[in-house]
Amino acid sequence: MTRCPAGLALPGLRTALGRLGAGLALALCLWPAPLRADCVVLIHGAGRSPASLSIMASTLRGAGFCTVMADYPSRAAPLEALTGQLDAALRGCGPRPPHVVTHSMGAILLRLWLERHPTAEIDRVVMLAPPNRGSALVDAGRGHALFESLLGPAGMQLGTGAADWPARLGPVPVETGVIAGSLSFSPLGSALLAGPDDGKVAVAATGVAGMTDHLVLRATHTFLMNDPEVIAQTVAFLRTGRFRRDLTRSQALAEVTGYFLD
Q1: What is the CATH number of the domain that holds 185?
Q2: Range(s) of the domain holding residue 136
Q3: How large is the angle between the packed helices 228-240 and 249-261, nearest 10 degrees?
Q4: pLDDT per position as a tens digit, 240-259
Q5: d(Cα 66, Cα 86) in Å, to the nearest integer?
Q6: Residue whose C-alpha is closest to residue 45's, from 89, 90, 106
């Protein structure tokens, strides 16, 4: 929630942040405590851009957070060459440890960054549809030029083999919640994945050692970050460190809408 000076109640600040947008929210991130808002860095997935997380970011600002978008050329280089692209974004929240929300490959990029920066301070992390144990689609796509060009060198490192990055990374060292999707519109993709899946990543492959909480929602991989239930649960975890098991879809939709209308 937004940090307010002691003794003051500012019920309209959340709405003001949502309506005035990222500029004011980011200014509050850098403001001296206790007025600063909690800051969230958002990291997009393979073949995407910060725009893919714009709905999530707008909702977080409406909920009283400020946001910083990480941007990196996901198809231009291997993961190990992309980790440096996160430095500026993770510093963009100022001196306080940031929260982080990732989508898909963004989770693996963050985990690699954390291994390379073991003393870095990160608050809570929410991973959306992360291939934490790799994806069998990557295994099946190896050797197919079109598939490899669509994913790029980094995406092709997300397989299930021992040499792939998901298997080489250790437990998450920070408070982490994982949201997996169980809705697929890709019969071919689902045929290659074991058990429930979101069309690109099996639910069973999203978990990671050291995680705090894990939640499965009926959402598909590509648009999971725009799902109202996913957004409401992301807000819940960033605030409390736990997902809300009693939250219904209608309640989530009402809450997400309310961040902009109250």
Answers
A1: 3.40.50.1820
A2: 13-261
A3: 80
A4: 999 999 999 999 999 999 88
A5: 17
A6: 106
